């Protein structure tokens, strides 16, 4: 349905500031192995690398045509967070799923097409990935996806309120394997607490990773959040969103390398601390 894009070529593309990201104060880095730890301007350290993000002529044309309608920057040029009425943006009131770090959007597109009753907001810092997803949305006439360019934690903090999301999806977050980089991992207690706050009771947090040690970390952090309850058998109970994912190129590489994929699913409990 769409290209899988250059997610496998991430490190080759590292080392270039995204000049039009609307996100200031970021370092230029060479990927998770070598990235210096720099303070984010509005939260601790960033969980992402900065990558070259030049669009092809066709992508640029499409960007100019479709982005103003279905895309938005998480922050404006002055650094002010986006304010947006999500229902108005989609033109309807439907359960909302937020995907953080959608890459080129292979899962985003396939899952949104499978679940037309849900509205999906996909967040990514990588403009070329978003451009690929934009192309696939355009070609397939998909109406239930909106895109935000920026930091997913920023989006959780500023765009969504308490109990506003039916699902949060985080597929193959950068594992930041070196111990000194662990603090850059997206899934930390404070992010998981923020997600728990943003989920409606019964809402789902779905994470997937092919990095065994990060999987353990995510499991620990999720299990320690009192407002989340782990779903061991995702086939057993009725969940408000699907947890069936298509295999992406990134995931395929992990599988080829013999790595197991961990699927981690929690639901938001109904009380504050039950
Ligand atoms: C390893 S890739 C996986 C992409 C995609 N989910 C997949 O399964 O193919 C991780 C992606 O998360 C993005 N990312 C990391 N931290 C992020 C954040 N805080 N907000 C938005 N995107 C983020 C990166 O730019 C990268 O594209």
From TrEMBL:
GO terms for cellular component: tRNA methyltransferase complex. Residues 21-31 have a biased composition (Polar residues). Catalyzes the formation of N(7)-methylguanine at position 46 (m7G46) in tRNA. The keyword Hydrolase does not apply. Residues 1-60 are annotated as: Disordered. It comes from Mycolicibacterium cosmeticum. The lineage of its organism: Bacteria, Bacillati, Actinomycetota, Actinomycetes, Mycobacteriales. It is an enzyme of class 2 (transferase). Pathway: tRNA modification; N(7)-methylguanine-tRNA biosynthesis. S-adenosyl-L-methionine binds at residues 99, 124, 151, 174. Substrate binds at residues 178, 210, 248-251. Keywords: Methyltransferase, S-adenosyl-L-methionine, Transferase, tRNA processing. Belongs to the class I-like SAM-binding methyltransferase superfamily. TrmB family. It catalyses: guanosine(46) in tRNA + S-adenosyl-L-methionine = N(7)-methylguanosine(46) in tRNA + S-adenosyl-L-homocysteine. The keyword Methyltransferase applies. One of its GO terms (molecular function) is tRNA (guanine(46)-N7)-methyltransferase activity. It holds the Pfam family Methyltransf_4. This is tRNA (guanine-N(7)-)-methyltransferase. Gene3D superfamilies: Vaccinia Virus protein VP39. The gene is trmB.
